[in-house]
Amino acid sequence: MARTITMEVLRYRPEQDAEPVLQTYELPFTDDMSVLQALLHIKDELDETLSFRWSCRMAICGSCGMMINGKPALSCKTFLRDLYPGPVRVEALNHFPIERDLVVVMEDFIDKLERIQPYIIPKAPRTLAQGEYLQTPAELEKYEQFSSCINCLLCYAACPQYGLNPDFVGPGALALLHRYNADSRDGGAAQRMELVAAEEGVFNCTAVGYCSEVCPKHVDPANAVNQNKTTAARDYFLSFLMPKGGKK
Ligand code: SF4
Ligand code: FES
Hints:
Bound molecules: iron/sulfur cluster, FE2/S2 (inorganic) cluster
Helix content: 25-40%
CATH class of the largest domain: Mainly Alpha
Enzyme class: oxidoreductase
Largest sheet: 5 strands, mixed
Oligomer: single chain
Domain 4Fe-4S ferredoxin-type: 139-169
CATH superfamily of the largest domain: Alpha-helical ferredoxin
Pathway: Carbohydrate metabolism; tricarboxylic acid cycle; fumarate from succinate (bacterial route): step 1/1
Number of strands: 7
Structural class: alpha+beta
Distance between the termini: 70 Å
Family: Belongs to the succinate dehydrogenase/fumarate reductase iron-sulfur protein family.
Order of helices and strands: EEHEEEEEHHHHHHHH
Number of helices: 9
Shape: elongated
GO biological process, one term: respiratory electron transport chain
């Protein structure tokens, strides 16, 4: 007999739901089915009104993050066989307002991304005739891991401090900030460190570490935050020893 699995999906349709409600679906189960495929089956065959984000289906675009059985995860990278016999509960990512069903409002994160200046700020103007920047493998290694972030927001849904204080810049944006500050081609570290040391910066972090645990790309944002705590504390003490403006 064909196997089935029960999915409990948090629905929120602002035009009809005063608050989010769980809706249950029974669907065919196969060993190779991801949670995203299950949601696509629901949308194609059972309920076309269900809304969720997805694109690449291969853990690259970062758009399919959601709470799966209470944990932040990519739905395309989570397989029903690991959750069988279910039921499997799927909800919008924690700590973000729900726009509709499993789709969250991302504006807060986009604003934070803009604030960290996620691009190389050259140390000095450089002409094309000067050729490309060269980097040693050791210089690449300093930031490579932190450049793998796919902006999936799982670390924000895992972060209890972001849940308590949405002003906290948060793990993903701070990991990306660190990616640029650690790049030998970049000269913007002093500007970004102002945000690192600000009220909404790294010292909000209480070192829970769940952000790194849920990260699907092994970025280890907790490590980036810790390194920046050390740098911000060092800068603070150095500011007493060095004349104003003498800081590198
Ligand atoms: S650090 Fe990891 S969990 Fe956080 S947004 Fe980037 S890829 Fe996602
Ligand atoms: S669909 Fe792109 S990361 Fe899941």
